[in-house]
Write a structure and sequence with these properties.
This protein is an alpha+beta fold and 120 residues long. It has a single domain (2-118), classed as YaeB-like fold (2-Layer Sandwich). Helix content is 34%, strand content 22%. The protein has a five-stranded mixed beta sheet.
Amino acid sequence: MKIYFETKKLLKQCSEQQEMVKTFGQKMSKKLQQRLFELKAAGTLSDISRLPPARCHKLVNRRLVFSVDLEYPFRLLFIPANDPVPLNEDGSIDRKKVTEIEIIDIEDTHDQENQRRGSR
């Protein structure tokens, strides 16, 4: 897949080894490099495993945002970058047709998910 980055800062953190280790530490940098390699090597989003270790999944509380696991509790967040975003008849994203993504963040989404679950 083709990968874009939302900001120049994020591009630098994800593409320059020294900046990556400085920002995320050695262990997480290795995992981040692995996930970026997997994403680049995939033909489409459907090629990325929904099972561990990548566990690619759409975030329930954010429109169009997907994530893959890094070092717990952090996730690499991205959105489909195809224009228009390919959709199935039911309105869900057609992962088999997503060939471009945009990395938007690296964060711990668990606090937000726990808050959402607790508010039901």
